[in-house]
């Protein structure tokens, strides 16, 4: 049985739900807390986590009366305890505390840590059969099929929170698997959609952080500019919905109103639309299997006037091509793709490489890994973490020569 549920096979949610938010201080965390804030009688907050932002975490824990708050930085336990003095919130610090936050008994967990660091916490929630709203695509790309198999085994319900995948989740219910022809994931095209390759090569951090439609965390905003984000999303869709690379198309749609579409055998195409506001897909996950009231702006198509579409350009945005390559190679290649991209983005933020070198570092790391012949299916979290670790080391080794090489 798939871990992504069908609408009609889940009992209605109970009146008060216990919820945990992993990555509560981030952009997705913020949107999630906004939804919880709107219905205080409906949700009891079990656990909240952050990386280093103790002040932000403590503020939320106080506001929502969280039972547990955990910060990933092990040196900040004292600061967290001080910030929560006089409350009943238990405190934890370090990676194990983030995992404990996920393992505590909440009905619904938002997995919104950024990067592969979110894998172990997401698995801890999955293993106890929780409903897991999955925003963190990197953990799925890192662990691949194994993540979904583990979720199915534990009876966990994976609710796709990424806007495109949430759209597919909503549209897929219109037909059966045998009737599905393909899914279409839309992409805004990011800030460099119309830029020449030579200009993209030299783009600055400030330019990469200017997303035309979405307000998001730093890593995903840079991934959107390189279209690595769309590549990660192609892989994410493949694992979430058990689709082959040939069944997933990307369509550039600069207005970000249609988030995803599913084509069926009778040539019906079912789409989900909405203003570009993450509170809509998160509200869908939070309300599942019912629908709750969402705070996003009402969609006014007459005011928007035109929805336009373009083919993606695999030449100017090689990250998208590399993602399909990784998916076709399988056996850990998507783990390498993700790990190398995380290293490359950090290097770009740190001013060590040009924007154009992000994809070159990912490609060089993937080529090295294929040449090494260490290709085997991932069968455990430890397998995925080992491949991730080795790929990060390799990318770090390749970094200086990539940094020197002009495009
Ligand atoms: P963000 O950088 O704004 O927030 C990340 C959160 O994770 C923060 O709370 C941070 O404290 C925490 N965190 C970071 N590193 C950590 C670590 N090593 N250990 C523990 N906690 C850590 O990121 P975001 O934009 O909210 O994105 C979160 C995830 O959701 C990403 O995987 C992203 O791809 C995905 N996503 C985001 C959006 C969006 O609109 N922001 C949309 C779709 C998917
Ligand atoms: Mg998305």
From TrEMBL:
<keyword id="KW-0560">Oxidoreductase</keyword>
<comment type="pathway">
    <text>Isoprenoid biosynthesis; isopentenyl diphosphate biosynthesis via DXP pathway; isopentenyl diphosphate from 1-deoxy-D-xylulose 5-phosphate: step 1/6.</text>
</comment>
<feature type="binding site">
    <location>
        <position position="136"/>
    </location>
    <ligand>
        <name>NADPH</name>
    </ligand>
</feature>
<dbReference type="GO" id="GO:0030145">
    <property type="term" value="F:manganese ion binding"/>
</dbReference>
<dbReference type="GO" id="GO:0030604">
    <property type="term" value="F:1-deoxy-D-xylulose-5-phosphate reductoisomerase activity"/>
</dbReference>
<keyword id="KW-0464">Manganese</keyword>
<feature type="binding site">
    <location>
        <position position="233"/>
    </location>
    <ligand>
        <name>1-deoxy-D-xylulose 5-phosphate</name>
    </ligand>
</feature>
<comment type="function">
    <text>Catalyzes the NADPH-dependent rearrangement and reduction of 1-deoxy-D-xylulose-5-phosphate (DXP) to 2-C-methyl-D-erythritol 4-phosphate (MEP).</text>
</comment>
<protein>
    <recommendedName>
        <fullName>1-deoxy-D-xylulose 5-phosphate reductoisomerase</fullName>
        <ecNumber>1.1.1.267</ecNumber>
    </recommendedName>
</protein>
<dbReference type="InterPro" id="IPR036291">
    <property type="entry name" value="NAD(P)-bd_dom_sf"/>
</dbReference>
<dbReference type="InterPro" id="IPR013512">
    <property type="entry name" value="DXP_reductoisomerase_N"/>
</dbReference>
<keyword id="KW-0414">Isoprene biosynthesis</keyword>
<feature type="binding site">
    <location>
        <position position="230"/>
    </location>
    <ligand>
        <name>1-deoxy-D-xylulose 5-phosphate</name>
    </ligand>
</feature>
<feature type="binding site">
    <location>
        <position position="26"/>
    </location>
    <ligand>
        <name>NADPH</name>
    </ligand>
</feature>
<dbReference type="GO" id="GO:0051484">
    <property type="term" value="P:isopentenyl diphosphate biosynthetic process, methylerythritol 4-phosphate pathway involved in terpenoid biosynthetic process"/>
</dbReference>
<dbReference type="Pfam" id="PF08436">
    <property type="entry name" value="DXP_redisom_C"/>
</dbReference>
<feature type="binding site">
    <location>
        <position position="27"/>
    </location>
    <ligand>
        <name>NADPH</name>
    </ligand>
</feature>
<feature type="binding site">
    <location>
        <position position="229"/>
    </location>
    <ligand>
        <name>1-deoxy-D-xylulose 5-phosphate</name>
    </ligand>
</feature>
<dbReference type="InterPro" id="IPR013644">
    <property type="entry name" value="DXP_reductoisomerase_C"/>
</dbReference>
<feature type="binding site">
    <location>
        <position position="224"/>
    </location>
    <ligand>
        <name>1-deoxy-D-xylulose 5-phosphate</name>
    </ligand>
</feature>
<dbReference type="InterPro" id="IPR036169">
    <property type="entry name" value="DXPR_C_sf"/>
</dbReference>
<feature type="binding site">
    <location>
        <position position="233"/>
    </location>
    <ligand>
        <name>Mn(2+)</name>
    </ligand>
</feature>
<feature type="domain" description="1-deoxy-D-xylulose 5-phosphate reductoisomerase N-terminal">
    <location>
        <begin position="19"/>
        <end position="144"/>
    </location>
</feature>
<feature type="binding site">
    <location>
        <position position="163"/>
    </location>
    <ligand>
        <name>1-deoxy-D-xylulose 5-phosphate</name>
    </ligand>
</feature>
<feature type="binding site">
    <location>
        <position position="138"/>
    </location>
    <ligand>
        <name>NADPH</name>
    </ligand>
</feature>
<dbReference type="Pfam" id="PF13288">
    <property type="entry name" value="DXPR_C"/>
</dbReference>
<dbReference type="InterPro" id="IPR026877">
    <property type="entry name" value="DXPR_C"/>
</dbReference>
<feature type="binding site">
    <location>
        <position position="162"/>
    </location>
    <ligand>
        <name>Mn(2+)</name>
    </ligand>
</feature>
<feature type="binding site">
    <location>
        <position position="53"/>
    </location>
    <ligand>
        <name>NADPH</name>
    </ligand>
</feature>
<feature type="binding site">
    <location>
        <position position="217"/>
    </location>
    <ligand>
        <name>NADPH</name>
    </ligand>
</feature>
<feature type="domain" description="DXP reductoisomerase C-terminal">
    <location>
        <begin position="273"/>
        <end position="393"/>
    </location>
</feature>
<comment type="similarity">
    <text>Belongs to the DXR family.</text>
</comment>
<dbReference type="GO" id="GO:0070402">
    <property type="term" value="F:NADPH binding"/>
</dbReference>
<keyword id="KW-0479">Metal-binding</keyword>
<feature type="binding site">
    <location>
        <position position="211"/>
    </location>
    <ligand>
        <name>1-deoxy-D-xylulose 5-phosphate</name>
    </ligand>
</feature>
<dbReference type="InterPro" id="IPR003821">
    <property type="entry name" value="DXP_reductoisomerase"/>
</dbReference>
<keyword id="KW-0521">NADP</keyword>
<keyword id="KW-0460">Magnesium</keyword>
<feature type="domain" description="1-deoxy-D-xylulose 5-phosphate reductoisomerase C-terminal">
    <location>
        <begin position="158"/>
        <end position="241"/>
    </location>
</feature>
<feature type="binding site">
    <location>
        <position position="164"/>
    </location>
    <ligand>
        <name>1-deoxy-D-xylulose 5-phosphate</name>
    </ligand>
</feature>
<feature type="binding site">
    <location>
        <position position="28"/>
    </location>
    <ligand>
        <name>NADPH</name>
    </ligand>
</feature>
<feature type="binding site">
    <location>
        <position position="137"/>
    </location>
    <ligand>
        <name>1-deoxy-D-xylulose 5-phosphate</name>
    </ligand>
</feature>
């Amino acid at each position: 049985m798939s871990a992504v549920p069908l609408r009609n096979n889940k009992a209605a949610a109970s009146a008060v739900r216990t919820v945990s938010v992993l990555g509560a201080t981030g952009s997705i965390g913020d949107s999630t807390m906004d939804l919880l804030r709107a219905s205080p009688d409906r949700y009891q907050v079990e656990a909240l986590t952050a990386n280093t932002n103790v002040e932000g975490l403590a503020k939320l824990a106080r506001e929502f009366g969280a039972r547990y708050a955990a910060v990933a930085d092990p040196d900040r336990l004292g600061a967290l305890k001080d910030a929560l003095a006089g409350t009943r919130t238990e405190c934890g610090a370090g990676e194990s505390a983030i995992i404990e936050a996920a393992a505590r008994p909440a009905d619904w967990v938002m997995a919104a840590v950024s990067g592969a660091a979110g894998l172990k916490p997401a698995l801890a929630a999955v293993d106890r059969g929780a409903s897991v709203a999955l925003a963190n695509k990197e953990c799925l790309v890192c662990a691949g099929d194994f993540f979904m198999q583990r979720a199915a085994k534990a009876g966990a319900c994976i609710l796709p929170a990424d806007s495109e995948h949430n759209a597919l989740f909503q549209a897929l219910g219109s037909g059966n698997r045998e009737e599905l022809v393909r899914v279409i994931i839309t992409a805004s095209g990011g800030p460099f959609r119309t830029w020449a390759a030579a200009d993209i090569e030299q783009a600055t951090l400030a330019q990469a952080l200017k997303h035309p439609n979405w307000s998001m965390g730093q890593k995903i905003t840079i991934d959107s500019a390189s279209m690595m984000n769309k590549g990660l999303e192609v892989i994410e869709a493949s694992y979430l919905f058990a689709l082959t690379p040939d069944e997933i198309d990307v369509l550039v749609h600069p207005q970000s109103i249609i988030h995803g579409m599913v084509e069926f055998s009778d040539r019906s195409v079912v789409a989900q639309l909405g203003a570009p506001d993450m509170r809509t897909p998160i509200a869908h996950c939070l309300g599942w299997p019912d629908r709750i009231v969402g705070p996003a702006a009402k969609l006014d198509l007459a005011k928007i006037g035109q929805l336009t579409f373009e083919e993606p350009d695999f030449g100017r945005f090689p990250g998208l091509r590399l993602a399909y390559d990784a998916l076709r190679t399988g056996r850990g290649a998507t783990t390498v793709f993700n790990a190398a991209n995380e290293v490359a983005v950090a290097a770009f933020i740190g001013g060590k490489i040009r924007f154009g070198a992000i994809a070159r570092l990912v490609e060089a790391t993937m080529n090295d890994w294929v040449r090494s012949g260490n290709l085997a299916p991932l069968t455990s979290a430890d397998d995925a973490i080992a491949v991730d670790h080795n790929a990060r080391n390799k990318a770090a080794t390749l970094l200086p020569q990539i940094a020197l090489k002009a495009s």
